[in-house]
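Lab notebook, design round three. We kept the backbone fixed and only want residue identities now. Task for the bench partner: fill in a sequence for the structure below.
Input structure tokens:
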């Protein structure tokens, strides 16, 4: 007998999307609602296709003290699924661990939430055990113990599916998020592993599938591209696994080299073309554009006022569209080379730069900068997003600067 189900994870319902106050009100509202819109679309697909069940692999809520609003919306979604005879199997992750304090709403009885120690629950269909599902919820925010070793396969069902919110490790040693080894999951001989925690969709293994569905809706500018869930059909040995994109707001980042553009008009029409290519029928797009390279427009783009006008032009009337492509950020890294050249004139800086370069390329990105006598006075703690952005920029800067100013002199 075949079984069909949806695998979603990291819904982060009611995620506040802080730091987006610069967006127009209509777009900000859409973004603020987007985790709920994604949930509604997941439910709609489940009901349209009459799947047997939905798996939610942790971080369903955004924080431990989950909002009442998130619970109310989730309960309503579960009730719709119940009316369509669709089961839900859910685990809690590091963001919504069981230890949090909240006013708990009771969910309908088509929903099963796994407890803090690994356990098995069976799905019966037409009087026989069709699927055994295995999983556990985070009791606390950090789970340092490898709990996969406590999953026990009970061989009385057609299919076996594992739910796990965690991070794999091989070389670097265990982590704080239910560390596991891929080889341990393979040893369980399950038909599918529905993973959560990593927000970038990815497969750790093909047969059997060990899969991160990624976040259901992109939660920050770094979570770019399509977001959604997997639609899985298992029929004997045959598997069909399809990704279904459903996010209401997509984050995108494009880099445009200005080298070949001789007029602002040409640059604007290129950027307009990029916008149209990114436009989605059922979603809005938040776009960050980065201009790089050197060209005839370098000088005019050096002026921040020009950059602002350019951004204004690209934003024209976009906030009135359902399928908007809103340029929320325009960056100009065109003149990086000029500045680097100046800095390199200073021999002390050159020495420091070489030190920083090693840190950057070895992955200890900011250590050199934070211990730099002058630099550290101007630095406040950085978010993970900022760190990653700076690392990208630093790598590019250093490569360009070294190439231009040392090797070509
Ligand atoms: Mn998460």
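Proposed sequence:
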């Amino acid at each position: 007998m075949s079984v069909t189900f949806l695998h979603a994870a990291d819904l982060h319902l009611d995620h506040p999307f802080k730091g987006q106050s610069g967006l127009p009100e209509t777009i900000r509202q859409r973004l603020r609602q987007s985790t709920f819109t994604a949930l509604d679309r997941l439910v709609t697909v489940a009901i349209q296709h009459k799947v047997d069940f939905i798996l939610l692999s942790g971080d369903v809520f955004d924080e431990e003290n989950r909002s009442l609003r998130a619970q109310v919306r989730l309960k309503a979604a579960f009730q719709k699924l119940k009316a369509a005879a669709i089961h839900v199997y859910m685990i809690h992750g590091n963001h919504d661990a069981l230890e949090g304090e909240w006013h708990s709403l009771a969910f309908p009885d088509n929903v099963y939430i796994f407890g803090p120690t690994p356990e098995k629950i069976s799905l019966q269909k037409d009087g026989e055990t069709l699927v055994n599902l295995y999983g556990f919820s985070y009791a606390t925010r950090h789970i340092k113990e490898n709990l996969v070793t406590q999953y026990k396969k009970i061989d009385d069902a057609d299919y076996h599916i594992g739910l796990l919110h965690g991070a794999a490790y091989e070389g670097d040693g265990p982590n704080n998020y239910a560390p596991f080894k891929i080889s341990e999951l393979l040893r369980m001989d399950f038909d599918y592993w529905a993973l959560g925690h990593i927000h970038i969709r990815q497969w750790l293994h093909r047969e059997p599938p060990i899969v991160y569905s990624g976040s259901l809706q992109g939660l920050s500018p770094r979570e770019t591209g399509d977001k959604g869930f997997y639609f899985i059909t298992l029929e004997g040995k045959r598997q069909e696994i399809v990704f279904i994109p459903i996010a209401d707001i997509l984050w995108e980042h494009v880099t445009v080299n200005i080298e070949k553009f001789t007029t602002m008009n040409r640059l604007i029409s290129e950027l307009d073309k990029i916008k149209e290519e990114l436009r989605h029928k059922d979603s809005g797009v938040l776009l960050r554009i980065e201009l790089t390279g050197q060209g005839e427009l370098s000088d005019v783009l050096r002026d921040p006022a020009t950059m602002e006008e350019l951004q204004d032009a690209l934003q024209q009337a976009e906030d009135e569209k359902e399928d908007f492509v809103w340029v929320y950020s325009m960056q100009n890294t065109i003149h990086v080379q000029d500045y680097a050249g100046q800095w390199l004139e200073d021999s002390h800086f050159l020495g420091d730069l070489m030190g920083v370069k090693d840190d950057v390329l070895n992955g200890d990105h900011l250590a050199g900068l934070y211990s730099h006598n002058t630099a550290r006075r101007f630095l406040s703690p950085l978010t993970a997003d900022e760190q990653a952005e700076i690392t990208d920029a630093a790598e590019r800067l250093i490569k360009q600067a070294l190439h231009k100013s040392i090797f070509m002199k």
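Keep this in mind before ordering anything: Confidence is low (pLDDT under 50) at residues 343-347.
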